[in-house]
Amino acid sequence: MAAVGLFSVDPQTGLIRTKAPLSHEERAVYRLRITATDRGYPPRTGVRVLRVEVLDVNDHRPTFASSSRVFQVRNDPSQSHRKISGFTLTWLFQVPEDAHVGMVIGSLAADATDGEILRQSANEEPLVVFTVVSPSTDNALIVNRASGDIVVAVPLDRERHSTYRLEVRALAHGGVNAGSDVHPRSSAISVTVQVQDVNDNAPVWPNDPVELEVREDALVGSVLANLTATDADEGINGELRYAILEQWPSAAKPFFELDALTGTLTLLEPLDFEELAAHSIVVAATDRATKNPKTTSMTVVVRVVDVNDHTPEFVSPATQVVAPATTSGTVVGAVLAVDRDSGNNGKVTYSVADPRLIVDPSGILTVAPGAPSFQPGARIVVEVTATDGGDPPRSSSQNLTLAVRSPTGTPARFSRAQVHADIAENARIGTFVARVSLAAGPGNATFRIPPGAADDAFVVDSVRGVISTKATLDRERRSNYLLPVYAITSDQQPFDEVDDITELADVALVDVTVTDINDHAPRFRHGACYPLAVPENSEEAVIHTVAAEDLDLGANGEVAYTITGSYSSN
Question: For residue 474, what are the contacts with CB-CB under 8 A and spacing of at least 6?
Fold first, then answer.
């Protein structure tokens, strides 16, 4: 039977359902070929084979012969009639919960004091008749009226009912050596049947997957979570042991350890958000059954939470040459500090400890309103502080020296202070990004990008102002860059201890947006696909959910699911 007609997958959610009842006798194993396709152009696909096992259940009633049990009846010479004797107040039987329907689990019998065994021919009434006075729960057990055999009537489930009780009355009729005046005697007994456990339940995780958030400064040895599953079986069938099946990414030294007895997840190695922001772990719970132990796996996603563990570092020159400045708002310099943290922890703001200057959020220094003019030949040392947005914040300072030169004509000024550019993430190294130009200024002006800015992913032609890529881009790693470009003019005037100093005349900010291309195929999450066991003859139901993710953006990252192939085996 073709598996495509028996299963379906929701193209949006990845839910896999059965479309018709399954039969273990017809086919025990199906292999479904699941394909995840994104909606990019051209489309990209990911494929995973899912093994579905159809479990055998007792759905065929066996045929069995009637019992040939012989019941013994004790003869009491002190009385003129027979009585049934030998019954205790309560009889106890034990039966495995996988006992098939029709199985005889025990018999109620009476002994004869003289050793005589009373047999009854097939066409006569039995000498002892057994009658159920109080039936068992769900009528799970029945008693053969003639033989007294206790028979399993329905499939048993210890996890639902572990003990059955029923009241049985045995009625004895006259027989051999009995006179016509013998009256029947009866005895009532209580029967208790204990259902013995078999390993018919697999461990169950309360949630799958489990997502944990762990600070990157968590100490080695810290307990991250207690991962515990449950098993409805009892004894060793319900005792669980835990293990890590896989850690991603794999490393020479594993980051995590799972206690086999308690399921306690412990940190073994330091975490670093800047190096790796997430870890995936596949853990398993296995019962301790001596025969065919059952295992269930579950995925744990550990998301590393960034902490403010990096201090801003200045990458701009500590000495800059400026023109004599008297006009409020004139640019006299620029500073740049980088912070490896993310979010607010990596967002840097600036302050300057000099009332003559103002520094804006991008690090550009301008003359404050009402500030006195800067005299030619002067050297002005100001302290600039870079502070990140962490809690608590971290900061560093730079003593910036501004060397004031003699006035030499019109200062260099960019034609546009802000430039926006888009570039595809698959752009080759050397691809054109944008161009900056000067509106006015001396002919010896050159352009420069400060070292460390924008991950050193861009370079500018010092003469033409053409900005191009210097490194491979990846939108999934970083989608935006704010790139400062300096206009520099040479100055041959000596300053005390500084010769051939350059002047930072103006700053332009280039906002570069990395656009997405369909460069990632859908990838099934760790632990999303593993062998499944499905009871045969089950109603239409959800049997599993597959989950794939695509790191691309928009339609490039939207995933649809289809069953593209199947395999079977018994």
Answer: 425, 514
CB 333 within 8 A of CB 323: no
As given in the structure block, the two tokens for residue 393 are: 């914040």
pLDDT of residue 98: 81
Region of 478 (left: φ > 0; alpha: ψ -120 to 50; beta: rest) is beta
Q: Judge if 168 and 103 occupy the same domain.
A: yes
Q: Is 258 exposed, middle or buried (0-12, 13-18, 19+ CB in 10 A)?
A: buried
183 belongs to a structural domain: yes
Mapped onto helix, strand or coil, the DSSP state of residue 344 is: helix
Alpha carbon dihedral 351, 352, 356, 359, in 10-degree steps, equals -40
The reply to whether 71 falls in a domain is: no
Residues 6+ apart with CB under 8 A from 375: 324, 404
Q: How many whole angstroms separate alpha carbon 409 and alpha carbon 441?
A: 8
Q: What torsion, rounded to 10 degrees, do the Cα atoms 447, 453, 454, 456 define?
A: 80
Q: How many CB atoms lie within 10 A of CB 476?
A: 14
Phi-psi region of 439 (alpha: psi -120 to 50; beta: other; left: phi over 0): alpha
Residue 469 counted as domain residue: no
Q: In this structure, how many other beta carbons lie within 10 angstroms of the beta carbon of residue 92?
A: 11
pLDDT at 119 over 90: no
Structural tokens at position 563: 């069953």
The residue type at 288: R
**Amino acid letter for position 310:** H
In a domain, residue 482? The reply is no
Per-residue confidence at 77, pLDDT binned at 50, 70, 90?
Answer: very low
Find out whether 488 and 445 touch, Cβ atoms under 8 Å. yes
Comparing C-alpha atoms, which of 416, 324, 396, 329 is closest to residue 365? 329
- Cα 414–chain centre separation: 51
**End-to-end Cα separation, the chain, in angstroms:** 13
Q: What is the mean pLDDT of residues 12-24?
A: 86
* Angle at CA of residue 177, ends 174 and 182, nearest 5°: 35
Q: What is the pLDDT of residue 285?
A: 93
User: Residue 76 is encoded by which pair of tokens?
Assistant: 């009491």
Say how far apart CA 111 and CA 88 lie, in whole Å: 12
Structure tokens at 530: 């593993």
Q: Are 406 and 493 in contact (CB under 8 A)?
A: yes
User: What's the CA gap between 203 and 268, in Å, rounded?
Assistant: 26
| Domain assignment of residue 382, given as a range | 310-407
Residues 6 or more apart in contact with residue 385 via CB below 8 angstroms? 350, 351, 352, 353, 395, 396, 397
Using DSSP, state whether 111 is helix, strand or coil: coil
* Domain match, 232 and 316 both: no
Q: Select from 347, 373, 407 the last residue of a domain.
A: 407
Q: Within its chain, how far is the Cα of 198 from the centroid?
A: 31
Locus of tokens 């027979």: 82
Q: How many CB atoms lie within 10 A of CB 58?
A: 12
**How does strand 348-352 pair with strand 29-38?**
unpaired
Q: Give yes or no for residue 47 having a pLDDT over 70.
A: yes
